[in-house]
């Protein structure tokens, strides 16, 4: 296939050529970045929590009036008893928070008492001896808390329990040698000893600010007995979640009506917790997906439209070439090659544009750098799209009969 | 003549249905994508209090020092100690402090369940500083602040729920076993984003339902329902009193300053205060204070979700691509009629006539594209709930101004896109066309 005549023909259609190339370039830049954002969001929303999500639900219980810390703790223990007696319940625990909730208590962990900067940030989960079993966490070293170790505290007390359980991610950060159990670490209130290590437990927030310590959590053997209220986390036997969720609120109110459990989101299955936490991530992924598909369709439509115009304009030339012995295949190849040349110029410019756009987003929105795979993928998609879009008009061109050469208009 | 041009345009559009349809779709999709994202962007990034945003300021004091603060910035709220010092100094025209409270409302009717009402503990100036509208009564007075009186302002919505919407000023209500006297009922008031309480991350939450005096809340040890940020230096306290005197920040401060001179004076006052604290041994670093007005504060706190900015920029890129596409298609469409143009020019049509005819045709395409764009925008609005949190999605809605803007954008963008193809059409040489025919 001779490229030179194609180039000289294109020179006569500078504007059209330029517009198609520009459109391909812009489309490549946007689709690449959109696909990349989709990938990041999807990767983010499939991060594991480490807990037995299908069988867990959460009750947010707020107290009415102004009971003191000790009274609150007694009421919490009564409630846990009430929930445990419901049919279908496997285990129940209480905490100040849970993974994917969106916010809670985060704090700094130090290795020495006089250290200025924290060694790591960590999510603080308050727990009783049922916490690990209820959530379905996997204890990989050390031991669980004993019932007699569980204390209770108000939000204002110093955070200084004698023992804690940590996640593997935190243990590895603090003690890279892998011997965290038995070691002393410093919470804000003072020293404490690590007695156990669980494999995986995600932080309360999946927002960017919490990503520095995403899986680094500390489990504190105290019930946080605040007047403001706390969460009950219930693990049900498989298939019984809905029934237990319906019964739980009623049983709690029957036992003690001086409480508030919000109608709207007071009782949430973990399925709902997850979809709430990742609502905007999933939404962005869908939005980007829709934009990309429509954009590719618009670009394809543009190529079809302009090429059809060219074919219509060049019917006579095509007829002449056919009369001079060019086969239908030659004509088809001509238009396909023409498009490939324009597309190549487009993707070349588009690559530069895509990188520039990504760099701008990196600085503006703290995004990651675009990976090469997305660029290559985008280039391949657009070249294929161009060839696909040009095929129908090119086929029509190839059907121009040689007799067209003799027609005057 | 204009009508004639439009009629010519409409005829021409019908002549090449495929190209016309492609153009209309292209414009429709481009405009819809931009409008949907723009609606979200407008909803979340508007100035929540335009009439006063340049006179309301957040004063912040660095109580952590360079060793513990983040990137040199003071924390985003005040300690109780600093909040009280600023209130008592009275250096601004108006000043208020606030923190969120969540109170259980005990209905008089024993059969009804108690429920939580969220709101703020604040000072009397809150209502005048933020132009809070009242349905009945008013806010409380500075004297009632000083007297730590159990008075309360409730929202129109809560008044509706509890008292069926009648004037409840003077009535009593019970919240968490405490009796309050209602002094005012606000009208519906829900500035978005909620600029005055960004610290607690409730920028797009449901409107506040109750307001009680800060001084009464402290006297009654009513805990904050919001954030409590203590930093790493350990001075947190371990009881209510020591916590109150400690270095945790949890109070959002606001001052109203009328002109540049007052702003300057307030900055000096803040620095002077920080130096005093240093002299007293509480700080051991140079004054590091901030004084930002509403817009600067929203900007600094990244109150606009990055999602809406990212999608706005992508949607604008999308619109550009659709326009490039439209330019190409219009070019193809117009140039195909070169012979016709040649004949018209030879028969005496001026270049201006050609311009008028083709731009009118483009405007018709734009109008059709705008109509399609409007339908797609409406569909997109319905789908917004999937993309953004419901609180934000609710803010964006298709109102008259948006409809107008959609059509205007579609038509002007198309006419703009049509300039180059029209120019090319007007350049057609009558003689050459006639000869080649």
TrEMBL record, chain A:
InterPro entries assigned to the protein according to its UniProt record, in alphabetical order: ABC3_permease_C, MacB_PCD, Macrolide_Exporter_MacB
Transmembrane segment boundaries: 15-38, 284-311, 340-360, 372-392
GO molecular function: transmembrane transporter activity
Locations listed in the record: Cell membrane
Domain ABC3 transporter permease C-terminal residues, every copy: 290-402
Membrane topology label: Multi-pass membrane protein
Pfam families to which the protein is assigned, alphabetical: FtsX, MacB_PCD
GO cellular component, one term: plasma membrane
Domain MacB-like periplasmic core: from-to ranges: 18-247
UniProt entry keywords in alphabetical sequence: Cell membrane, Membrane, Transmembrane, Transmembrane helix
Family, similarity comment: Belongs to the ABC-4 integral membrane protein family.
Name under which the protein is recorded: ABC transporter permease
Organism per entry: Dyella telluris
TrEMBL record, chain B:
Keyword Cell membrane set for record: yes
Places the protein is found: Cell membrane
Membrane topology: Multi-pass membrane protein
Domain of life, source organism: Bacteria
Domain MacB-like periplasmic core: start-end pairs: 20-265
Alphabetized InterPro entries for the sequence: ABC3_permease_C (IPR003838), MacB_PCD (IPR025857), Macrolide_Exporter_MacB (IPR050250)
Listed transmembrane segments: 17-41, 310-332, 365-388, 400-420
Annotated keywords: Cell membrane, Membrane, Transmembrane, Transmembrane helix
Residue runs in coiled coils: none
Name of protein: ABC transporter permease
Species of origin: Dyella telluris
Upper lineage: Bacteria, Pseudomonadati, Pseudomonadota, Gammaproteobacteria, Lysobacterales
